[in-house]
Amino acid sequence: MSQEHKSWFTTLENEALICGRCGCCRSSCPVYRVIGWESASPRGKISMAKDIYAKGKNVGLSDEFVQRVSQCTLCGACSNICSTGIDTRALWLELRQRIAQSGKSPKAYEGIRNNLLTNKNISTFSNEDRLEWAQDLDEPEVVEPRTGAEVGYFVGCVSSFFPQAAQIPLAIVEIFNEAGVDFTTLGGEEWCCGFPLISSGYPDDAKEFIKHNVDRIKELGVSTLVTSCASCYHVWKHESQAELAGYKLEILHTTEYLARLVEEKRIDLDELDEVVTYHDPCDLGRNSGVYDAPRKIITSMPGVRFVELAHNRSESLCCGGGGNLQSVDPQLAASITQLRVEEIKESGATIVVSSCQQCEQMLSTALRSAGLPVQVMDISQLILEAMG
Amino acid sequence: MKAGVLDEIKGKYGDRATDAPYECSLYSRDLAPVPALLVDPLFNTMPDLVVRPANMEEVAEILRTAWTENIPVTPRAGASTVYFDTVPVKGGVVMDLNLLRGVVRLDEERMTVTVQAGTTWSELDDYLNRRGLTVKSYPSSAPGASIGGWFCMMGYGIGSLKYGSLLSQVRSAEVVLATGEVKVLTKETDPPLSWFAASEGTLGIVTSLELEVRKLTPMKHFLMRIANIPEMTRVLSELKDAPVTPYNLHFADPACMRAMHDLGLIPDDIQDGCILEIDYEGSDRELAQAEDVIRAMAADNITINMLPSEIAAMEWEERFKALRLKRGGPSVLGGEVWLPTDELADYLADINKMSLSYGINLISYGHVVTPKHATVMTMFYADETKTIKYIFNLSLVKKIQDIGYRHQGYPYGVGLWNTPYINRIYSRKQLNELRERKKALDPKSILNPGKVYRSPLLMNPFTFGIGMDVLAGILRAAGRGGR
Questions:
Q1: Quick one: closest CA in B to A83, which residue?
Q2: How far apart are CA A139 and CA A206, in angstroms?
Q3: Partner B contacted by A257 (CB < 8 A)
Q4: Are residues A293 and A355 in the same domain?
Q5: Are the beta carbons of A20 and B31 separated by less than 8 Å?
Q6: Are residues A125 and A245 in the same domain?
Q7: How high is the pLDDT of residue B186?
Q8: Whole-angstrom Cα distance, residue B253 to residue B376?
Q9: Of B30, B322, B330, which is closest to A14 when you measure between CB atoms?
Q10: Chain B neighbours among A 267-326 (CB < 8 Å)?
Q11: What is the pLDDT of residues A80-93, one digit of tens each?
C-alpha cells in the first residue's frame, strides 16, 4: 500500500554542492509561499548551507540562517520535486543537528528537549497518566498493558494527553472491540516516539526513546504495532528498524489497519450522507507513501461522496503544524494552514478527514476561525460515525 | 547609489523591501556557481535593495523612481538560468517579481489564458489541467521557471516542436518600460511584442501575458535505445519530419546513458547506445497513427530496441529532473547550444573527439525544438570547491561552444556570461538593431544593465578567446579536465 521514494542522501556537504539552485522547490514550499523571500526557500537555505559547510567560507552560523532552518515544516514537498533528487528532509534534519551541536538551536527546541527528557512525553503531565483518556471507556481496563496480545496500539503523546485528541483513541478502542481485535497498549511505559527530538536536532536523544519503546514492545510480544499518529508511524517505520532487528513486527498506521478491518468486513459501515475530503498528513503520505488506505476506507462508505483537494497525495499541501514549526513561529504555521483551508473551502466538503492529530488540530482551529461549516475528523472518528 | 531614494522605497514597501546583507546576498546568485575570484573584481553583484512588488502599478512606480534617479534595476522571478540574467552586475535594485502570481482570466472561447508573469509554468499548467486544458509548450524547468522569464529568454522547450516558440503563442503582454510607462503589446503595436521575446529583461518588465492554450489530450510515450549516434540522429530526423509531429523529442548520447546508469537512474540492460524519447499528444486517431510510425520504424531497423512503455512513461514523468545527472558531480560545467539538427551527428562526433583530447567525459542531451533546430546541453563533471582547477575547467565551456559554432550553432541565451559570443549569436545587422531598440526604450540603460548587448571590457571576444584558449591548452597538454 505504500509507495516510498529511495533516499540518495550522502552528506550535508555533498548534497549542498549537488543542489542546482534551479528553484523548482520554491513554489511547492509552503514556507516560501508565505514568507516570499529567497532566504526562506529551500534553494536559498541550501545555498547558505553550501557556503557554511561545503565551501569553507568563513560566514559562521548567523541568527538569520538558524531562524530560516527552523522555519520549515519538514513536509518533504521540496524533496518530492527536487530536480537533483536531494532528500531535502534528511538535509534539514542534518542541518538542525549541526546547529544543535553548535549550541545555537532556537530556545523553543531546547525547551522541547528538556521537557521530553524529564517527562518522556510532549506535555507537562506525568507519563504515568498516559491512559487517563481511557477513563471515558465503559471498561478502562481493556487498554491496560498485557502480554500475549496480537496488536500493540501505540497511542502517541497528543492523543494521550490533549483532551481534544483523546476522542481518537476512544474511537479506536471502540472499533477494535467491535471488530474483535486482540490488542493492548504500553500504558505508562509508552514514551514519546522521539520525533520531536529528531526534528529539533537531537537524534541521539531520540535513540534512547526509540530503544525504550522497542524494548517494551518486545516484552509485550505483539506481532503488529498500530499507531494513529503519522509522526509516530514515521519513526516506527523509518527510525526504529535497527532496534527492531531480529524481532518480526508489522508496523501499520491506523488507516492501514482499519482499511484491513473494512476489507475483511469485520466492521459494518452504515450510510453517511456527507461530502468528504481527505488531507494527507506529510509524515504518512509524502514521507511514508501511505495514500490509498484512507481513501479506500472513505470510498467504501455508503452514501459518502469523496472529493479530492486541489493538491493531494504526493502533492498535498502541509497543514503548517509539522517540523516543530508551531513552537518557533506559530504565526507562520497558522498562515500555512490558511493555504490548505482555502483548498478545503473550494472542495465543497462538509467533512475533512485526516489521520494525524497535529494536522487535525491545525485545520480545526483555522476552519473554526474562518467560520467555515466544515467538520474535521480523524479517520477513526469517521468510521465510528458510520458504525452508527 | 542614492541612499535616500532607496530608503524611501524601503520605507514605502515595508516588509517587502530589504537591504539586509544576508537576504541580498542570495539575490546575487543564479544556477551558475562562478568563483568569487572571477566575479568580485569585475562586477557588483550585491543588490543595494531587493523589493517585491505585488502588482503592475508597483512595478511601474519603482521603475519611475529608478528612471528618475538613474538606479539600475534587475528583474528576477524564477532565476533559473545560468547566465547571470537575473543577477545585478552594477548593484542597484533587484525587483523580485514572484508576487505577480496567478491567473487573471481564462477565456475558453478564445482559448487563451491571461496570467501574471511571476507564475511558474507548473502552477499555470496545474490550474489549466483542472479545467481540462493545458499550455502548448513549456520549459524543461517548468516547476521553477516563470511565465515571464521564459518569454524573456528564447522560449523553446517541451512542446515547441509541435506548437512553435512561446512568442508565437503569446497574443499580448503587459509590459512596464524603463520609464515606468505601461504598455499592452501585440504583434501590431509599436514597439511590437517580438522585441521583448529573448530580450532578457533589458527592455521592460513583463507583468502579465495572454497565452494560447489547448485542450488537454491523451499522450503516448515511446523510448528507443539506438545503437549509435549516426543512427540515432537519422531516426530523429525521420521522426521530426514524419506526418505526425512529436510533442516532445528528446535525445541522450552514450555518455549520458552511461552517466545515468552509473547513478542508478536506468537499468543495466539499457546502459549502452543512445536514447530517443518520443512523446505524442492528440486525438486517438493521431496517437494510433504515431504508434504506427514508431512501430514501422522499429521493425525496419535492427539498431532500434523499443523499451517497455512503462519505462517510456516514467521518463516522461521525470522530464523535469534532468539535473539528477548533477549527482555525479557535485558540480557540472557545460554549454547549451542552439544547433541545426542536420549538424547534430557531426557535433556529437566532435564532442567525442574533444572528450578524448582533454581526458574528460562530455555528456550530451537535448530536445528538438523546431523542425530544424535542437537545443543541446553538453556538460562535464567538475568540483567547484577546487577553485583553480574549476577556473581552468571553465575554459572547456568555450571549447564546447567553439564546436557548436563550427556546426552553425551558438549559445542558447546571452545574459552576462555569453556576451563574449554575442557576434556568433547575432549578425552585425541584428546586433545593431537590438542596440537601437535598447537605445530607444532604455537610453539610460537602467534595465538589467551589463547584459546581452556587449561584453564587459575584460570579457571582450578577443581577450576572452585568448584567455580561455590558453587555459584550455594547458588542460589539453595535461590531458585532464573535469574533476
A1: B321
A2: 33
A3: no
A4: yes
A5: yes
A6: yes
A7: 98
A8: 11
A9: B330
A10: 310
A11: 999 999 999 999 99
Give ranges for CATH 3.40.462.40 in chain B: 219-410
pLDDT band with cut points at 50, 70 and 90 for residue A1: very low
Q: Tell me: do A162 and A137 sit in the same domain.
A: yes
The class of domain B103-215 in CATH terms is: alpha beta
Q: Does B384 touch chain A (CB under 8 A)?
A: yes
CATH class label, B219-410: alpha beta
In this structure, the answer to whether residues A127 and A220 fall within a common structural domain is: yes
Q: Which residues contact B262 (CB under 8 A, 6 or more apart)?
A: B328
Q: Which of residues 73-132 of B touch A (CB under 8 A)?
A: 78-80, 96, 98-99, 120, 122-123, 126, 130
B144–A22: do the CB atoms touch at under 8 Å? yes
Q: Per the CB < 8 Å rule, is B22 touching A25? A: no
pLDDT reading at A175 higher than 90:
yes
pLDDT for position B132: 98
Nearest CA in chain B to A22: B80
Any chain A CB within 8 A of the CB of B146?
no
Residues ≥6 apart with Cβ < 8 Å to B40: none
Task: Give per-residue pLDDT as tens, A205-259.
Answer: 999 999 999 999 999 999 999 999 999 999 999 999 999 999 999 999 999 999 9
Q: Which residue of B has its CA nearest to A82?
A: B321
| CATH number for position A29 | 1.10.1060.10
- Residue A98 is predicted with a pLDDT of 97
Per-window interface: B 185-204 vs A, CB < 8 A: none
- Distance from the Cα of B437 to chain A's closest Cα (Å) equals 31
Inside any domain, residue A5: no
Contact A36 B99 (CB under 8 A): yes
Place of cell 472529493: A307
Contact A196, A210 (CB under 8 A): no
Same domain, A248 and A118: yes
Name every residue whose Cβ is closer than 8 Å to that of residue A208 and which is 6 or more positions away in sequence.
none
Per-residue pLDDT at B299: 94
Q: What is the CATH number of domain B3-96?
A: 3.30.43.10
CB-CB neighbours of A296 under 10 Å: 17
pLDDT confidence tier of residue A55, bands split at 50, 70 and 90? confident
CB pair distance less than 8 Å for B326 and A84: yes
State which of A212, A239, A260 marks the end of a domain.
A260
Question: Which residues belong to CATH 3.30.43.10 in chain B?
Answer: 3-96
From A338, A337, A341, select the one nearest A322 (Cα to Cα).
A337
Domain that holds residue A157: 109-260
| Closest Cβ–Cβ partner in A44, A62, A81 for B26 | A44
Q: How many CB pairs under 8 A join A and B?
A: 90
Residues A299-351: tens digit of each pLDDT: 999 999 999 999 999 999 999 999 999 999 999 999 999 999 999 999 999 99
In the stretch 60-119 of chain A, residues with CB closer than 8 A to chain B read 62, 64-65, 81, 83-85
Restricting to A residues 151-180, those with a Cβ less than 8 Å away from any Cβ of B are none
Query: In degrees to the nearest 10, what's the CA dihedral of B314, B315, B321, B326?
Result: 120
- Phi then psi for A160, rounded to 5 degrees? -75, -35
The CA distance from B429 to the nearest CA of chain A, in Å, is 34
* ipTM of this predicted structure: 0.96
Residue A3: its pLDDT value, please?
Answer: 47
pLDDT over 90 (residue A42): yes
Cis preceding linkage at B191, omega within 30: yes
Element (H, E) at B49: strand B49-51
- What average pLDDT does this structure show over A40-49? 98
Task: Work out how many domains chain A is built from and give that number.
Answer: 3
- A101 and A140 in a single domain? The answer is no
Of all residues in chain B, the one with the smallest CA distance to A60 is B22
Domain shared by A97 and A157, yes or no: no
Q: Which pLDDT value is given to residue A246?
A: 96
Q: Which residues of chain B have pLDDT under 70?
A: 1, 480-483
CATH number of the domain at A366, please: 3.40.50.1860
Question: CB atoms < 10 A from the CB of A289, how many?
Answer: 16
The tens digit of pLDDT for each residue in B451-465 reads 999 999 989 999 999
Closest chain A residue to the Cα of B99, Cα to Cα: A36
Q: Which helix (H) or strand (E) holds B280?
A: strand B274-281
